[in-house]
Records
---
Amino acid sequence: AVRRRMAAACARSGRPAESVRLLAVSKTYGPEAVRAAAEAGQVLFGENRVQEAAAKIPECPGHVQWHLIGHLQSNKAAQAARLFDWVHSVDSGKLLEALDRHAGEAGRRLEVLVQVNVSGERSKSGLAPAEVPAVLALGNRLPHVQIRGLMTIPPLGEDPENARPYFRELRERRDGWAAETGLELEELSMGMTHDLEVAIEEGATFVR
Ligand SMILES: *Cc1c(COP(=O)(O)O)cnc(C)c1O
């Protein structure tokens, strides 16, 4: 049903269906649910806590890809760098440096997104837009992390249309930062179950 919604939103906005990927969020679900979804063809899974993921991932099929979407403390960066393929929630230069170092030690390369607090809500993690260019420049110099784009979580709201200005702002800022830094920043992780259509219309490449 979610894939049908995604396909309809892609068709409406003139985007190819394969330009948006579905990240199935498996937090609070056990390995048997991941296994069932994987058997049905789902490949990308999202977790928001390192500890929960560390217990779950070894019990899941080896071919699936793991994305960290929750806030990450630097003291868990070593574990995260071994467990995850992507981290969507990089929100400081210090964390990015820690991920780079631990990914290097583990002989891996991590794909990362910089989380941006577009709304400025104090309860939300993510960098203020003014802080983003310095972190992008840092990421550009680090060998074991590849900054692939940006992530945001808009304020909670009943009406998905209320999220549109935040999704649009992330895309517009991305266009500016990509031009400034030379990074492609092609990935936009935005949109959840209730507002994924609006996110796709505004350019999401991952919906969660
Ligand atoms: C839990 C979570 C989601 C999925 O939320 P739904 O409301 O189930 O769609 C998406 N993104 C993040 C960052 C989450 O923590």
---
Amino acid sequence: MNLRIPGPTPIPDEVLRASAAQMMNHRGPEFAQILRRVTDGLNWVFGASTDVLSFTTSGTGGLEVAIVNTLSPGDRVLSVSIGSFGDRLKSIAKTYGADVVSYATEWGEAADPAEIARLLDADATIKAVLVTHNETSTGVTNPLEAIAKEVRARDRLIIVDGVSSVSSVPCPVERWDLDVVVSGSQKGWMAPPGLAFVHFSERAWAANAEARMPRFYFDAAKTRDSIAKLQTPWTPAVSIYYAMDRAFELLRAEGLEGVYTRHHAVAEYTRKRIKGMGLKLVPVDERFASNTVTAVYWPDGIDGKGVSKRAREEFGVVLGGGQGKLDGKIFRVGHLGFFQESDVAEALDVVEKLLASAKTTV
Ligand SMILES: *Cc1c(COP(=O)(O)O)cnc(C)c1O
């Protein structure tokens, strides 16, 4: 199978083999060494000088960690949503009683830092800004560094969903002065689903001391104190730590610049091929097109779900579909984590062939 969805992503054989190792005592010295190495790897990729925390959960659990550990019911937050994952982050905040002010763009557009600045200037009671770095549902990457500058200048917290960006595109949490940043093992990290990674800035820890949203399993302070002793508060997904430990050897061998360059180059290749096929990208402004996932409209009159089904059944190419209001209207090609240009080329060749035959049979 050529799995081209934006997560879970394919995993290198050596990482798969590492994840198949026998269980060990998660409170013993061997696991402590693995947790130290994995945490060092996370700190390296996040650009953090304090430990990135890991939680046994998927990316959404990591988003919940971010919300419940920094906010109290009734806190006013600005939700910046450019697609379905932005909406999800907003829903989590609402579920826990935050007072949410919404800024939503049309799907396909990026958020405008100047608009965020204006909204913050208009309301001094907004305590935090919730923003998606890379919106996986539309293939759009927000100008996060510029957004962070506006938020910082107004001294609010910035809480970032970096689930499908961190480790694939630059997101240096300290250099950009971000408060809470979340990622997940099954996206760019070349590991199976099961771990979420969350970094808290000093400001975020200060907010944590005051935050009253309910939490137990996802208590970040408990997790921080455990990880300081090279343990986790609860039984962790031991096998995913084995996988991450091995995946970091590969990431370190390639180097962060190498990883970012590969993602950028293959994303450019993908966009060029898509436009060459006469298809339309979902991102309205290509400057904000994602380097980890490319979202493309099916041409008018084409049964996109039918084409996807044939790609899977006849050619073993698994494309991502559309989410929410884009269901049936678009397809998405993931190019994050472990892949080369040839994997994407093969998938696009199949799409091209199937579209040509679909057109002649209409
Ligand atoms: C995948 C993803 C998530 C989390 O999804 P899970 O299925 O819970 O791992 C959150 N945000 C973005 C931007 C994502 O791409």
